[in-house]
Please model this.
Amino acid sequence: MKRGTIPFFLCYPGSGPVRKIKLTVAYEGTAYCGFQKQSGSGLPTIQDALETALSNLAKAEVPVTGAGRTDAGVHALAQVVHFTTGEWAIPTDKIAPALNSRLPDDIVAVGAEEVAPDFHARYNAVAKTYVYSIYNRKTPSPFRRLYTCHVPWPLDTEAMRQAAKYLVGQHDFSSFQASGRPVKSAIRTIFGVDIGTDGSLIRITVRGNGFLYQMVRIISGTLIEVGRGKLSPDDLPNIIEAKNRTRAGETAPPQGLRLEKVEY
Amino acid sequence: MKRGTIPFFLCYPGSGPVRKIKLTVAYEGTAYCGFQKQSGSGLPTIQDALETALSNLAKAEVPVTGAGRTDAGVHALAQVVHFTTGEWAIPTDKIAPALNSRLPDDIVAVGAEEVAPDFHARYNAVAKTYVYSIYNRKTPSPFRRLYTCHVPWPLDTEAMRQAAKYLVGQHDFSSFQASGRPVKSAIRTIFGVDIGTDGSLIRITVRGNGFLYQMVRIISGTLIEVGRGKLSPDDLPNIIEAKNRTRAGETAPPQGLRLEKVEY
Model:
């Protein structure tokens, strides 16, 4: 009934083939300062937790590389990381359960598969999908607070859909980039933005070939302002054109965001 | 977008009628040592949090009485409490939002209504409904861990339904009572037990006129053992008849349980 009852696998180095592993991981980001290790800071990160569990399994240091960074408080349904095994005796299909008995409850290894030696979780990704969840009811919910952004005002989802259309395609998304992580180019391609509703939940699903720092949260904050009527859908072309962060809406809070899928 | 933006209500005592209020409250119990105040212990409880928020609103002590105690880690979708206002200026329909701006995020006042002066949240309750949620998949979910019990083995819900039928009706439920809270009589009436499924979720819904200490969790633990085949549905009559706690199944963990509804 509890994590502790998952079978314990004996896994010592020494008798298996060296493999490149693609590991899919789900996590609740609430307790973490993001995915990326912050060496020497002592701050808890998803990468640190994964490397600690893997090192415990391998009896050696095992660095992992993620498909993308998620910020502090952001979740993942299916983040992808890669790493190289030593000569472990453990079969590939037992890696995820063995890790789960060593990981904290808020991080779960969903599955592991062997991939080609040149596989790279970040460079080989062709698309990523993020979902931003809004709990759109006057009264907040204690059960939704960790996984949604509570918006008590009515939102016009049709206006949000109209606005979202302008984001699709290849654009310079400088207006939707937070400062702090300079990149060579702010040009990205968004393949689609979907606004779905499910009871009191509104989900903004954004699929693209890559995302700038806090880009999905700034897109979501901007679409929320459109939904409230503070911006018009037709303001979007000008906001994109301005290439100026101050023109877009507020950055929506991290707990509403999750990395949904990474495609290769 | 955030709790802090809910309008602040000015509420000073002195110019309104004294009222008896029935307040409906939702909470995530993870961070609390149960509903009931444990005077002098310093342990956080739901009752303490409600009384602190009410006292802040009323500028005076306001004791609250709950429909029932929930244990440490147990949640509520609609717990009911009553209290008596002083001569507050605040209208009844503004009590819930005013409390929400004073309560922590994991406790939400859902609604307040004025009731007759002799209303009592516990004594007037004619039925309570509890829901026990099981996440029944091999791999756990980081997003379900706080609100479900993870059971990795397949469960036979049809056998659980067969077993549940024996619990319905008026019985001495001594076999389903944890020690620690002696009561005069262990006779209770269960109006219905429903086993519902929704994807990987199995929900055990129990409606009754009253419940013994940890009764729903022991019922749930017993039904899980039936689902796994460790007990047979036809063991239930003997377990009930034995009036002996050791005969029933394990006590299922608290995070799977929520108080769903209190009827008057």
User: Anything to note?
Assistant: The radius of gyration of chain B is 20 Å. The first strand of chain B starts at residue 20 and ends at 27. The beta strands of chain B are 20-27, 65-66, 75-84, 107-115, 127-135, 149-150, 169-172, 187-198, 201-208, 257-263.
